[in-house]
Amino acid sequence: MIVIVLITITLMKKAIDTLKNIPLSLRVASAVGGILLLLVLVGEYPVLYPLVLALPAILVMVFTHHYTGVLSQKRWSKARKVLHNFALEHGGVTNISFEPEEFISTVNRIGNLKRIGNIVLVNIGDRQYRIFNTNLDIRKSNARNVIRTQFTVFELRLQSSMPHIYIDSQHNHLGRSHLIGGYFESAERVRLEGGFENDFIIYADKQNLLDVWDILSPDIMEFLQSQGKDFNVEIINDRLYILKPKLVLSSVELERYLQTIEVITDRLQPRLDSYKSSSLETSGMY
Questions:
Q1: Range of the domain at 36
Q2: Tens-digit pLDDT profile for residues 54-107
Q3: How many CB atoms lie within 10 A of CB 38?
Q4: pTM above 0.90, yes or no
């Protein structure tokens, strides 16, 4: 009996490896056939009954993992083409080299960066944006579960270092999961009037709260509430990051997002330009 069980487990492992490389219809047929075969065997070998119960769960996990991976790769490839074509159409530069350490956003600090790529440089008006896609695993603070997240990131270099501000939208899965707030150990949540906290939570270095309140003027907050709920916005050192959870998968969508981002940047830029890094505390939020 023990030999039969070991042989069956070995065959199941080989079948699972094979299932990853065949079409879904054949995988379903294999699953049904395997279950029927085991049901027949159980009549003579009751010891195999637990395998009948375990097989459907194993097959579901294999199918889900494989199918999710295929979809993720397809989204990544499609997002790459969108960025590549957009850069070419706007006279931008493609295939830019990029070290992961250059991505200094909080989401990269708290996440496990799995992939970064599809990097392009695009001039919009008098500004040059670096746009790229990322795959990140982010673990919720004091929890075991990991949330796998894909971003399209819009990065703009600023003239000098700024007070650290993170604007966390509550209209995407990052905000709803409260993934960001737990990592700002020395930060203070910024309170604003006008119902803004129903849509965004703001974290900032408490040594620079007066500067933060000045930067986050009512017109910027109102625009974010009306047009910017899809984004998380971060100002850190000399970078402005506008993060779009989930990849941008169409040129129309990318154009629309960039129009919104340009308005956000137009409203932030004068206030950011009025600051000099020498006037700011540099302790940061970590």
A1: 2-75
A2: 666 655 555 555 444 545 778 888 989 999 999 999 889 988 887 888 888 888
A3: 19
A4: no
Specify if 286 maps to a domain: no
Three-state DSSP class for residue 17:
helix
Is 97 found in the same domain as 8?
no
Distance between CA atoms of residues 87 and 122, nearest Å: 6
Which residues contact residue 178 at a Cβ distance below 8 angstroms, ignoring those fewer than 6 apart?
A: 140
104 and 69 fall within a common domain? no
| Residue where a domain terminates, one of 25, 52, 75 | 75
Nearest CA to 244 out of 98, 94, 107 is that of 107
As a whole number of Å, the CA-based R_g of the chain is 25
Lookup: tokens for 175: 């905000």
Q: Say whether both 29 and 169 belong to one domain.
A: no
The neighbouring-strand residues paired with 188 are 204
Write out pLDDT tens, residues 240-265. Answer: 999 998 889 899 999 989 988 898 88
Residue 63 lies in a domain: yes
